[in-house]
Amino acid sequence: MEEAVTKPKPPLKIAEEDGSCPAVERIPDLQGALPQATLLIQNLQEGEVHAVHPELGPGGSWKPNDCQARDKIAVIIPYRDRQTHLTRLIDFLIPILQRQRLDFRFIVTEQYGNDLFNKGRIMNAAFIFAESLGVDCVVFHDVDMFPQDDRNPYSCPPGPRHLGAFVSNLGYQLWYKEIVGGVLAVSMSDYRAVNGYSNQFWAWGGEDDDMGQRILSLNYTIERPNPETGRYSMLKHVKRKRTAPKLIYKLLGNSANRVAYDGLNETDKWTIRKVTTRPLYYHLYVDVGEVPEEWRAKA
Ligand code: UDP
Ligand code: MN
Asked: Which residues form a coiled coil (predicted)?
C-alpha cells in the first residue's frame, strides 16, 4: 500500500531580486483588516509578552531574516500611568511590524514626576535618543492607538506620514488638514527640518496641531493612508483637562514663527534622567523642567 506523503510547503519567498524586503504593497502574507477582540483590556504582563516573543532583542528590537529590511525604525511611545495600554499595544504591534519586515525597536518616553504633562518635550528627548540608535525614521505612537489594518505602512516615509488618520472616536474622519495626532512617521532629517515638537505646550492639547502647522509651513505635504487601511481604534481613557485654551490658541497663532527657535534645538528644556534597556523597549525617564506660572495658574 502506498503511503500518503505530505510534501512540506516551500517557504514563502519574500526577498526581492537584490535581497531586500518588499515594500508593504508587495508583501504577500499581510492579513488586511485585523481582529480587534484583543483590545478587551485585561492586564498583560511584560514578561508574558516577552515569553511569546523570545526572538526579540534588547529594547524590543527585531529584524527580518528572510530578506534585508529596507528601513530601521524606532516606535516612540509617550507614556504616563497607562501600563495596561502599553503592554497591549506593544503586544499588538510586534506581529504587524514583523509581517511588514521592518527592522524595529520601541522607545517608551515617560515624564518624570507628577507635574503637568509636556508631550513635546518627552518626544524631543526620545528623538535625540533614537538618533543615537542610528535609525532611519521614528514613528510617534500614542499608547492608545491600535491599527485596524496591517497594510498601513510603518516604513520610513519620503515626507511626514500621518498614519493615525482615521480614528474610531473621531468617526473615522479627518477633521482638518493639519491634523497629525495619534501616529506620525517622520524621517530623521524631516524631524530636524521642522525643529521637532514645540516645548511650550503643557497639560492637554495643542502640540500635535502645532506640529501639523510646522510641517505645512515648510511646504511639506502630509501623506496619509487610504480610509480603509488607515483605521485605528482608540482605547477609552479618562479625558485630560484642557487647562489653558487661551494660551494654546495664542501659541497656535504663530506656529510658523516659532519653528526657528522653539523645539529640538532648545536642548536645555529637558533632561533624560535615566535610560533602561528592557526586554520589550528602551525606557526613558525625562525631566521636563518647571511648569511656567501662567500654565500652572490654570491647572
Ligand atoms: N499620555 C499618557 N498618560 C497621560 C497622558 C498622555 O501616557 O496621562 C500619552 C499617551 O501615549 C496618550 C498620548 O499621550 O495616548 C496622548 O494623550 P491622550 O490620549 O490623553 O490624548 P487625547 O486622546 O485626549 O488626544
Ligand atoms: Mn487618547
From this structure: none
Cα 133 to Cα 72: distance, rounded to the nearest angstrom? 10
In a domain, 13, yes or no: no
Q: Which atom belonging to ligand 1 lies closest to the Cα atom of 77?
A: 11
Nearest Cα residue to 120 out of 253, 282, 258: 258
Residue 106 C-alpha cell reads as: 520601541
Question: Which residues form the domain of 169?
Answer: 54-296
Which residue's C-alpha comes closest to atom 5 of ligand 1?
Answer: 80
Is 14 within a domain?
A: no
Cα(101) to centroid(ligand 1), Å: 28
Question: Which mutation among 143, 211, 241 tests ligand 1's pocket best, with the greatest number of atoms within 8 A of CB?
Answer: 143
Cβ(79) – ligand 1 distance below 6 Å: yes
CATH number at residue 99: 3.90.550.10
- Total domain count, the chain: 1
Residue whose Cα lies nearest atom 4 of ligand 1: it is: 80
Q: Which pTM does this prediction carry?
A: 0.95
